[in-house]
Design brief:
This protein has 66 residues and is mostly helical. 73% of the residues lie in helices and 0% in strands.
Length: 66
């Protein structure tokens, strides 16, 4: 299996990944209160854990309910 064969699967996955990180970083930077942790912690976690886990963890554990 070559990269060319996997592109139909990889392109949507990469798009979703970047959308998740963009939405989570936008939310982190525009809000002041979090359930757990601080802004710096969530920014680092969202960027370093970029393979879906960082943004997903933020939305589950860090995002304060409005």
């Amino acid at each position: 299996m070559t990269l060319h064969d996997m592109l139909p699967f990889l392109i949507p996955l990469v798009i979703v990944q970047f959308l998740l990180i963009f939405i989570s970083l936008r939310h982190i930077l525009t809000h002041d209160h979090y359930k757990r942790g601080s802004r710096m912690l969530w920014v680092i976690l969202a960027i370093v854990g970029m393979q879906f886990w960082g943004p997903i963890l933020y939305f589950i554990l860090g995002k304060e309910d409005d």
